[in-house]
Amino acid sequence: MTVPLLDVTTVPAYIAGRADLAEVVDATTLTVREVGDGNLNLVFVATDAAGRSVVLKQSLPYVRLVGESWPLSQDRILAEARGYDAAVRHAPDLVPRYHGLDVDRRVLVLEDLSAWSVWRTALDAGVATPGAARDVGRYVADVAFGTSVLGSSSEDVRAAVAASVNPEMCRITEDLVFTEPYVDHPHNSWDAALDADVLALRDAALLDEVAALKYRFLTAAQALVHGDLHTGSVFVAPPGTPGPAAKVFDLEFAFYGPVGFDLGALLGNYLLARARAAVLDAPAHHQAWLAGLAGETWDAFEQRVRDRWASHADTALTDGFLDAWLRQVWQDAVGFGGLKAIRRVVGLAKASDLQTLDGPERAAAARAVLRTARTWVQGRADVAGPADLPDLVLPDVVRPDRAVRHDAPRVGA
Predict the structure, then answer these.
(1) Are residues 204 and 91 in contact, defined by beta-carbon separation less than 8 angstroms?
(2) What is the pLDDT of residue 67?
(3) CATH top-level class for 117-388?
(4) Which one of 27, 160, 299, 348 is most buried, counting C-beta atoms within 10 A?
(5) What is the pTM of this model?
(6) To 5 degrees, how large is the angle CA 160–CA 166–CA 167?
(7) d(CA 248, CA 132)
(8) Residue 160 phi, psi dihedral angles, 5° rounding
(9) 278, 367 in Cβ contact below 8 A?
(10) Is 253 helix (H, G, I), strand (E, B) or coil?
(11) Over the stretch 3-47, which tens digit does the pLDDT of each residue have?
(12) CATH number at 11-111
């Protein structure tokens, strides 16, 4: 079923028809702007004469990045609503205020965080964001603990797994992260100077590890995960803002999956930011700060899980089990992080971290990401913790001797 789409002229009447929003904004004095710059949805900011505002998000019946040739069910916003429902229960301070879902129109209404910055944008600009990596680690921990058998009964978790299937969005992830970058596919594109590095992605030993990680993604229904937790899905607060330094949004890929997948998405995107800073010769202290983000996120995640362990739901799960579980989550995160980074270089929906660099620097940064990511994927079993995570493998800046390929879309995520 396709539902009518909102536009800037129809949003005021829509809000006026929502009694639950009457105390949030004045529908009679609204100004509306369309701000959606992502790959999938319509997003509007509606502001009244008193300066109060809300965000409305409506799912499109196709992939916006590609167009109507790639249809997509608007029901995916139901999965996003489930994600927000869980986040509000388990990490309410780390997501925008949630004003609920209109099921019939496939519209979510959220707090307007326009005064905040998208984390990727801040990182691209070389801005340090103290506390953000810690807060996203805590977000993953609280939602994972609360929606898994660590914090809920096995009966409740089984029911939640059944209610939270998200097959269409999971298939997109399966294809873009685990399949397409390793075969010839029209979605793929890269700087021609990277031909040898891309060819190396077809190495049999690497493909074995990709297959193992894909199988884990497909089968390990551990907790309700965000499903696309990159730095473009996090807002960071302006300096001096009380409360958390970061809030997570865009949960439409939410599904029951491996906890390390969300952590890995963050690690892979930290690697992109680190490569960008390196080729731009950012100050050493800033590069060191970026290099520490993985540890900051993991330490916050691990500490939060251990802090909550005293209240874990099943007393048959022992302290030794927790240690083993955390080791497995970390190794998953390292492997998934490598794959998430590779896909941003080779596959569809590239990241602005690299795409906004000039050609020679872009090629050098991309080569560093690919080479480092391979070491993560293939060596993850030997990476005991963040201190052992292989650092950026940075080659000399190499100027491409051929034009950049343009056989597929290139967009910032």
Answers:
(1) no
(2) 73
(3) alpha beta
(4) 348
(5) 0.93
(6) 130
(7) 10
(8) -70, -40
(9) no
(10) coil
(11) 889 999 999 999 999 999 999 999 999 999 999 766 688 999 999
(12) 3.30.200.20
